[in-house]
Amino acid sequence: MRVCVKQVRGLTCLEGRRGVASGVTARSKVRAKAGQGYRDWKDGTPKDLNDVNAVIKPINGDPFIGMLETPVTSAPIVANFLSNLPAYRTSVAPVLRGVEIGLTHGFFITGPFIKLGPLRGMEGNVPEVAGCLAGGGIVLILTLGLTIYGIASFQGEDGRMSEEKLAPKTLTGRSISSDPLMSKQGWEEFTSGFLVGGLSAVLYSYICTQLLPYYS
Questions:
Q1: 5: in domain
Q2: Percent over 70 (pLDDT), the chain
Q3: Residues 6 or more apart in contact with residue 68 via CB below 8 angstroms
Q4: Is 4 part of a structural domain of the chain?
Q5: Which of 36, 61, 84 marks a domain boundary?
Q6: Would you say residue 50 has pLDDT above 60?
Q7: 185 and 107 together in one domain
Q8: Residue 58 bridge partners (DSSP)
Q9: Are 78 and 151 contained in the same domain?
Q10: Range of the domain at 69
Q11: How far is Cα 155 from Cα 183, in angstroms, rounded to an integer?
């Protein structure tokens, strides 16, 4: 009887030791996986994100940018279209970019106010005058918004954004020169150009409503 009890106790101790050993082994595996994941994170992006054959992956292989590189956003036709927009043409002066954007928005923004405004049913040129005045008001509000954004963004000692102190890169990783628009003086010139272009476009829109023979 004593021998059986000793054998049972021995088996229990052995099983307990095996359980402890298996628990330690499991914890060691978890720690090893966690350490490997940390090393992968420290070295760069995970292996799945570095796959060159992936259709959708982080831009420039950096998941911390917060932008994905897809067949649509990385297509040459899309990249060329975005590069030719006035806001991204770094070779053009900021004031000219503001004038171009203001002319485009100011000319087309009066149409909804003229045709859908509360005075659209009035006789004479009342709808046109009211719509163009409303369009001019929208241009002034947008100019105020651009001014507030510039004051809030360019507060550094050199009048530049903190992000722009780093050299910007293209989609292919090529370093380019800093955009003059991303500075206090450049943003002020852009805002001034937008105001002049927007109000000029609103005035031109009103002239078109009075002179075009097929307008009704």
A1: no
A2: 66
A3: 56, 57, 58, 59
A4: no
A5: 84
A6: no
A7: yes
A8: 68
A9: no
A10: 51-84
A11: 10
**Structural tokens at position 153:** 């963004």
Identity of residue 150: G
DSSP line for 51-109: -TT-SSEEGGG-GGG--EE-TTTTSHHHHHHHHTSGGG-TTS-HHHHHHHHHHHHHHHS
Partnered with residue 175 across adjacent β-strands are 169
Give 114: exposed, middle or buried? Use CB within 10 Å, 0-12, 13-18, 19+. Answer: buried
State the amino acid at position 131 in one-letter form.
G
Nearest to 139 by CA among 86, 88, 101: 101
Domain boundary among 64, 84, 104: 84
Same domain for 125 and 205, yes or no, is: yes
| CATH number of the structural domain spanning residue 105 | 1.20.1240.10
Cα dihedral value 167, 182, 98, 150, nearest 10: 160
Q: Report whether 60 contacts 169 (CB < 8 A).
A: yes
The residues, any chain, with a CB within 8 Å of residue 67's CB and separated by 6 or more, are 58, 59, 73
Tell me the pTM.
0.64
Number of domains in the chain: 2
In this predicted model, which residue has the larger pLDDT, 27 or 94? 94
- Do 118 and 145 lie in one domain? The reply is yes
